[in-house]
Amino acid sequence: MAEERVKRRLAAILCADVAEYSRLMGDDEEGTLAALKAHRRELIDPLLVQHQGRVVKTTGDGILIEFASVIDAVRCAVVIQQGMEDRNASVTHSQRILFRIGINLGDINIFGDGVNVAARLQGLSEPGGVCISDIVHQTVGDRIGDPFRDMGSQRVKNISRPIRIWQWTPGAQPEEKELDEVALQQRLRFVTAPDGVQIAWATVGDGMPVLKAPNWLNHLEYEWRSPVGGPFLAKLAHSCRLIRFDQRGNGLSDWEVKEISHDTMISDMAAVADAAG
């Protein structure tokens, strides 16, 4: 008998849920359900038709939608959130329904990585905002017109690789501060420590190699935007080959580790030094 094959197709995947849904239901279950139905009927469903979105699955306050076009998915998400901002204007703050939206490009298979990433992005979104993966941001480019803020690479639950995230929020302005050109040339890599922990490290610049020891609560990408550390790193990278890494338990390195000690920190540094040559 031939094996049953799961149909797979690439699509823009939108996941949305309601922030503080349990509290809203506890305060006023009947009113919350009525408001949700009204938002769906009067705002969301017409926009899905307009942007050719198809509802794949609904679960309580959650909804999974697919779009053939990434641009349609992002435009639809932004317009939904703008529409919700208008609809909430006359509603008491504690009773407002605020959606969190995540968008990824991938396999629409419900149990696949594409949907999983979209769901994690949804969880990271600010209420009333939209989080998109880097591949979605690259695909959309500047064709949306609404500014997305670079949230850097982040580790999310059940995804082995870090995911670069971009976020839109109502009224957001384009970032005024541009990253130093050298920061954009940073090359991110991973090395496995002797005890199996994945350590994120990066190299940027040319010349004599300089290995910077990490500090606690560091992040290889966020540090470039620090008003304290960013200018120092940029100046250093202009004059040498700068090698940095995130300590275990920090940034893009593994967070869930069995041991954080003086010995493991030295071992991690040695692993990065070896990997960097």
Features:
Rossmann fold, seven-stranded mixed beta sheet, 2 domains, about 30% helix, Alpha-Beta Plaits, about 280 residues, alpha+beta, about 25% strand, 7 helices, four-stranded mixed beta sheet
Largest sheet: 7 strands, mixed
Any low-confidence stretches, pLDDT <50, length ≥5? 1-6
Helix/strand-derived class? Answer: alpha+beta
Number of folding domains?
A: 2
Number of strands: 11
Strand order in the sheet with the most strands: 2-3-1-4-5-7-6
- End-to-end separation: 53 Å
CATH topology category name of the largest domain: Alpha-Beta Plaits
Mean pLDDT: 85
Question: What characteristic shape results from the CA principal axes?
Answer: elongated
CATH superfamily grouping of the largest domain: Nucleotide cyclase, GGDEF domain
State Rg: 22 Å
> What is the level 1 CATH name of the largest domain?
Alpha Beta
> What order do the SSEs take from the amino end to the carboxyl end, as H and E?
EHHEEHEHEHEEEEEHEH
3D architecture notes:
The protein is of the alpha+beta class and 277 residues long. The chain folds into two domains: 10-168, 2-Layer Sandwich (Alpha-Beta Plaits), CATH 3.30.70; 183-276, Alpha/Beta hydrolase fold, catalytic domain (Rossmann fold, 3-Layer(aba) Sandwich), CATH 3.40.50.1820. The strands form two sheets. The chain has a seven-stranded mixed β-sheet with strand order 2-3-1-4-5-7-6. Strands 8-9-11-10 form a four-stranded mixed β-sheet. Strand 8 (187-192) and strand 9 (198-204) form a beta hairpin. Helix 1 crosses helix 2 and helix 2 (29-50) packs antiparallel against helix 3. 32% of the residues lie in helices and 25% in strands. Residues 1-6 have low confidence and may be disordered.
